[in-house]
Amino acid sequence: MSEQKVYLLGGYQTDFARNWARENKHICAMMREAYEGSLRTTRIEPADIKAAFIGNFAAELYCMQGHLGAFFVDFDPAFRGLPTSRFEGACASSALAVMSAMAHIRAGMYDCIALIGVELMKTASPAKGGDYLGTAAWYSRESAGVEFPFPKLFGKLGDVYEERFGLDDTYLAQIAAINYANAKLNPNAQTRDWFMSYDHACSKGQYNSTVSGRIKVTDCSQITDGAVCMYMASAPFAAEYARRCGITLESIPYIQGWGQTTAPMEFSAKVAESENQPFVLPWTRKAITDAYSRAGLKDCWDLDAIETHDCFTTSEYMAIDHFGLTAPGQSWRAIEEGVIELGGKLPINPSGGLIGCGHPVGATGVRQLLDAYKQVTGTAGEYQVKNARRVATLNIGGSATTNVCFIVGK
Amino acid sequence: MSEQKVYLLGGYQTDFARNWARENKHICAMMREAYEGSLRTTRIEPADIKAAFIGNFAAELYCMQGHLGAFFVDFDPAFRGLPTSRFEGACASSALAVMSAMAHIRAGMYDCIALIGVELMKTASPAKGGDYLGTAAWYSRESAGVEFPFPKLFGKLGDVYEERFGLDDTYLAQIAAINYANAKLNPNAQTRDWFMSYDHACSKGQYNSTVSGRIKVTDCSQITDGAVCMYMASAPFAAEYARRCGITLESIPYIQGWGQTTAPMEFSAKVAESENQPFVLPWTRKAITDAYSRAGLKDCWDLDAIETHDCFTTSEYMAIDHFGLTAPGQSWRAIEEGVIELGGKLPINPSGGLIGCGHPVGATGVRQLLDAYKQVTGTAGEYQVKNARRVATLNIGGSATTNVCFIVGK
What we know:
The structure is a homodimer of 410-residue chains. With 410 residues, chain A is of the alpha/beta class. The first copy, chain A, has 15 helices and 11 strands. Helix content of chain A is 36%, strand content 16%. In chain A, the strands form 3 sheets. In chain A, strands 1-7-4-2-3 form a 5-stranded mixed sheet. In chain A, strands 8-11-10-9 form a 4-stranded mixed sheet. A two-stranded antiparallel ribbon of chain A has the order 5-6. In chain A, α2 (59-62) links the parallel β2 (51-55) and β3. In chain A, α6 (149-165) packs across α12 and α7 packs across α12 (313-322). β3 (84-88) of chain A pairs antiparallel with β3 (84-88) of chain B.
């Protein structure tokens, strides 16, 4: 079957620096604000929207609220009756919403779908929030009674790199510094006004305390409240939308390739499986190479930028070789050579990523996709990668259990 | 676009009378048992399965575990890397998994998908469980501080019927008695060994206490631990499967029609909206009529049975007129005339439904679909509807917020 193109029509990201818990606003208000913002940044009208798909990790825990899909219906009288659904795959929740929207569009079921990724996390104390995040792993085996399970699991990812290839933590500090630096150019980034430097990221102690193992505060992504709303559409709808906007269909980005895999849940099982393989996380690698092959890419050098899932500096370190910027285990070379910096040969996380822009868990997959859209349409403002024509995203859930990669281009 | 048929290849339901919390088993073990059972009841092999979609309402609350989709990967070495996803729409969670599986198959993305609906609920006390279920409604407005929010909301549904059309509660008692009677024929029904009679369902007091308003214990569906695994496939896969089984493609059921709608979240908004309309829940009605029209049905009399969402007797009372068995508000006629009984003109819930068979929330949509499959393949055993060729299912989430209807036939 010849695959139908699925187009991206832009969207809106809330300011990730806001604290919605302190603003005393319901998660529904955050979704609504993302939706209403998207009406201003696109020329989508309520009557265009045929379904709404919501990615969210754990509003049940953070907000004592399930059934998030249904809230969309309240946003406009035109939405009464609209099909809605909620998708969950831990930190990759909204990438799964994207996958399903793509399927519904290609199946001819809906021609324009609203996608919202959302998470309200600041309702919980750091300890409680860490425990909630533990449900993204195998809770009873990996998280119960562990103060911060995810820094521990992604610390171990660094340990595996150290054992197999060697790892100098100053490269992790550079990853942190680059993400924070990029975030300063992003008006929606959570850390845009925070002080950060490579020296600070290298430091250890009172002002950069250890969270778990080799993971220090500066190695971590943020606890973030945020939502993103964007639109996906069929080719006929995109063509009509292009006419409405006075642009050509060719100027609208579409999903050129995708890859989705699931690795065994437990991190120890992942590592055991990859023992004698070149890549530490072979299923993450496969999601990427599947996306490359569906998009007809030779390798990563056909890309102009990457938005990857840097929940910790170690996960970005992993992404560098898994995307193929270097041979396995040699990610430090791309860092040392400036390849991944804004202005480098293949910038990673021009937005600031999860470390700099923020990580509202269930929103991240759609946020990455919206940033890819902005890059390839030349609308990323100060964090624009020059002449970006093709951008990859990688959203991972759990300890790289769910892996979803998209290639966005025109 | 001509719509591709999506076939159902059978599956397996766990015994809904079991108490998995008391057995001290993880929700993953329940999913696994449903999956392994499905290998015995179908001729599906692990290598056939290209993706696994899991419907679950709130394992985060009941089991402190998210990311349920990923557990599937552990069930067989062949599943390493398999795309997985989890779907949530309150009590209609697994119907949303079915919708998405249908979309992926029709889009040509996967040719055979494993579907699991699962809920482990007996981990929580009745009060705590009632509170968790409250997250399926607008928690802060409808559930917080309310002892049992859902009996209250569905009691109000009865009140609306009473105000608009008149309602004699003995008809609700008959609905309960019929569901319990049917459940006695279902070897997987939770209540198959329970005492129940019409007189008992009519009684009120020490042995049939009031839960909220007009809702007594006998008007309620059960708190149930259970999982169901079944398979959906493309036409080419189903044809190959038919050859493997020595049967014809025409003997394999497929989804003939579907309807999916979302009503406003709050029950009061639903009722206000339908004030001057013939149907109390117009969006539930639309999900049904959309399914009829996609399946090319004239009306409900083209059906041989219905598996509906009787979370309370009032929701089945609503389903009777919304499916069109009677004029709006006249559901009592179909009850009085024996239409909905096993052996009647259009049996409802031959399985026993949510009241008799049980209601593991996130499993119910797939359980209904599996029962529809059993009916149209003549494999429903003692609760078989004679010569059933076409069966409808209705799965609702929240106070009839998410509504999904399927028509299954050959």
